[in-house]
């Protein structure tokens, strides 16, 4: 079978620049929307996946599920756990045990400013031993009446980065706190939190208890050692869960969100297919006589169909490339809020594969049915078409 050259399809696209441009714009929009949705799913999954450390164990109140904000354990729990469990990692006589007070509260950038909901964690320097992915990227560790903010904390609170620079102040729990630094956590959910000294937060909250104790186990230690301690100390009413299992359970909780996002992506794809069918049908109808003439001079119908599909594919590939560049330059790394904090949209290889695959499918599915339908007309009827 003799095929029409690629140059023929390119000339046809350039011969109708307005129609080709509008089709390209529509395809680019659909692919870009699919990339945004997939980037949302990939970013959420990554934020929860990288937040868990298999050697870190969380000890908190019994029966709290995943609600660490409502957990309340005695202040002495940290020392008890560190002294009673042999498997807690130790360095230079310092146990890797981090007592923490964790809560959600309103945060303002001025005394009378609009409040935003933020996540605050009161910690001691031991937190840097347990949460090894924490890195202070600017400023210093907070001193009294100071705090440091995560890289994505401004997104979670809903304020501009210009209002949360080092040296400026935030208001929470009726007190003014000076920003001493900024920290990152390799994409983990901790990046959307605000950290301050444990004793300062306890004083501001008028509390003497903790929300949790985070432990890092030595390589030869077992989770069962911590679990057994919690079950034996009935007076403390504690439970233990590995940090990686904790965030896996959160991933299950967000399964409906991911399902809804995939449903949106499928609906966008379906809408793009229908729009492509209408556009390509209109383009092919206007070329009935031309296609009939090609058959008259010796080209088979399949050659004409392949040529039309080639045109749709070229538009789809171009749209996919444009959408991918826009997604990488604009969408990738954009921060979004959710209940556990904030995360960044991730346009990685998998997201690009979904986006470009969508574009290619749109090009083929949008051009193939109209081409087959039109070319079923008898050649004589096609030559008579206006």
Structural summary, described in words:
With 386 residues, this protein is of the alpha+beta class. The protein has two domains: 6-49 and 254-384, no CATH class; 56-218, no CATH class. Helices cover 50% and strands 20% of the residues. The chain has helices spanning 6-15, 17-49, 77-84, 127-130, 153-157, 198-205, 223-232, 243-253, 255-285, 288-296, 301-331, 349-375, 379-384, and strands at residues 56-61, 90-91, 94-95, 97-108, 116-123, 135-139, 146-150, 169-172, 175-184, 193-197, 212-216, 238-242, 335-338, 341-344. The strands form three sheets. The chain has a six-stranded mixed barrel. Strands 2-3 form a two-stranded antiparallel sheet. Strands 13-14 form a two-stranded antiparallel sheet.
How do the helices and strands line up, and which of them pair or pack?
Blueprint: H1 6-15, H2 17-49, E1 56-61, H3 77-84, E2 90-91, E3 94-95, E4 97-108, E5 116-123, H4 127-130, E6 135-139, E7 146-150, H5 153-157, E8 169-172, E9 175-184, E10 193-197, H6 198-205, E11 212-216, H7 223-232, E12 238-242, H8 243-253, H9 255-285, H10 288-296, H11 301-331, E13 335-338, E14 341-344, H12 349-375, H13 379-384
Parallel strand pairs: 5-10, 7-9
Antiparallel strand pairs: 1-11, 1-12, 2-3, 4-5, 4-8, 4-11, 6-9, 7-10, 8-9, 13-14
Helix pairs in contact: 1-11, 2-9, 2-11, 2-12, 9-12, 11-12
